[in-house]
C-alpha cells in the first residue's frame, strides 16, 4: 500500500520531460545547440569526410573527382624522402618542445609566479611573443637572421667575416625554425604554470620550509607535484601544436633550402595544395589527422585518466 502511495506521489515520465523542456537549461540547449551542430558539421565533419574521400583519387581540385587511385597517394607519400624528412622535423619539434621549451617555461614560472608589480612586467614581456601573429614572428626573425641587413649581418661585419645566411644553410635552417618556435610559444606554457602555481596552498609551502626543506626541495616535492595536472595539459598542447607547425616555417624558410625544413603541414601545403594535387594533399592530411587522434587518445588514456 505504501509503495502504491509513493508511486502515486512521484512525477511521471511525461511530467519530468515537461519540466525539463520548460526549464532554462533545456531551452538554452534547444536554442544554441542546433546552430553549433550545423557549423561544426559544415566546417569540421564535412571537410574531414571530404578529405577522406579525395585521398583515394588523383584529383586537382577542379570538377568532381573521377580518377580513382586507391592507395597510390599513400604509397607515394610514404616513399617520398621529403615527407620522411618532414616527419623527422616534426618529431624534432616535439623533442625540443619537451626538453627545452617546457622546462624553460616552468623555470620562469617558478621565478615570477608571485603577485608583485615587477613580476607582472616580466610576465607581460615573456608573454608578448605568443600574442604576436605567427606570420609576423616568422617575418621578423627572417629579417633578424638575414645575412645582408639583419642582426646576423651586423655580427658578421663586426667580426670581419663573410655574410652568413642561417636560413639558407641546410645544417642550420631547421635549427633556426626550432629556436623561433621555442621563443614564440614558451610564454603560453609559462602562463599555464603560473596559474597553477598560484593555486598551490601557501600553508603547504610554509610547512615544508618549517620542516627544513630547501627552495629546490620545496619545488621538487611540493610545487611540481601539485601542478602535475597543468604540466600534463601543457605537454599535450605542446605535442599537438608541434604536429601542426606551419605559419612560422613559411615566412622564415618556406621549407628550404632544398626542402630540408618542411614540417608535415608545410609539406602538405607545398606538395599538395600549392601544386593542385588535392588528392595527394588529402592523403597527407588524413595521415596527419590519424596520427594526431592516435596521440590524443593514447595520451589521454596514459596520463589524463581519473584515478580509481
From TrEMBL:
Keywords: Cell membrane, Membrane, Transmembrane, Transmembrane helix, Transport. Pfam families: BPD_transp_1. It is found in: Cell membrane. Its main location: membrane. The keyword Chaperone does not apply. Residues 87-299 form the ABC transmembrane type-1 domain. Belongs to the binding-protein-dependent transport system permease family. This is Sugar ABC transporter permease. It comes from Mangrovicoccus algicola.
Amino acid at each position: 500500500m505504501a509503495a502504491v502511495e509513493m508511486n502515486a506521489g512521484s512525477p511521471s515520465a511525461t511530467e519530468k520531460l515537461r519540466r525539463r523542456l520548460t526549464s532554462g537549461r533545456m531551452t538554452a540547449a534547444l536554442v544554441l545547440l542546433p546552430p553549433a551542430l550545423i557549423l561544426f558539421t559544415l566546417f569540421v565533419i564535412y571537410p574531414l569526410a571530404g578529405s577522406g574521400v579525395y585521398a583515394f583519387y588523383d584529383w586537382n581540385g577542379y570538377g568532381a573527382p573521377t580518377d580513382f587511385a586507391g592507395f597510390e597517394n599513400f604509397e607515394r607519400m610514404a616513399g617520398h624522402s621529403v615527407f620522411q624528412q618532414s616527419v623527422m622535423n616534426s618529431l624534432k619539434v616535439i623533442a625540443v618542445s619537451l626538453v627545452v621549451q617546457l622546462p624553460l617555461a616552468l623555470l620562469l614560472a617558478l621565478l615570477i609566479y608571485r603577485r608583485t608589480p615587477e613580476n607582472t612586467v616580466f610576465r607581460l614581456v615573456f608573454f608578448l611573443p605568443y600574442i604576436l601573429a605567427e606570420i609576423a614572428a616568422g617575418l621578423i626573425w627572417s629579417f633578424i637572421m638575414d645575412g645582408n641587413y639583419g642582426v646576423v649581418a651586423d655580427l658578421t661585419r663586426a667580426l670581419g667575416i663573410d655574410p652568413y645566411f642561417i636560413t639558407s644553410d641546410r645544417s642550420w635552417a631547421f635549427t633556426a625554425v626550432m629556436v623561433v618556435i621555442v621563443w614564440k610559444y614558451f610564454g603560453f606554457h609559462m602562463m599555464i604554470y603560473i596559474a597553477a602555481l598560484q593555486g598551490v596552498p601557501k600553508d603547504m609551502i610554509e610547512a615544508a620550509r618549517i620542516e627544513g626543506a630547501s627552495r629546490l626541495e620545496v619545488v621538487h616535492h611540493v610545487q611540481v607535484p601539485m601542478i602535475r595536472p597543468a604540466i600534463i595539459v601543457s605537454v599535450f598542447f605542446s605535442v599537438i601544436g608541434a604536429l601542426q607547425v606551419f605559419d612560422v616555417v613559411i615566412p622564415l624558410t618556406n621549407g628550404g633550402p632544398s626542402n630540408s625544413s618542411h614540417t608535415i603541414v608545410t609539406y602538405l601545403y607545398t606538395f599538395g595544395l600549392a601544386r593542385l594535387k588535392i588528392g595527394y594533399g588529402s592523403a597527407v592530411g588524413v595521415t596527419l589527422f590519424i596520427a594526431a587522434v592516435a596521440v590524443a587518445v593514447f595520451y589521454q588514456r596514459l596520463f589524463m585518466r581519473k584515478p580509481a
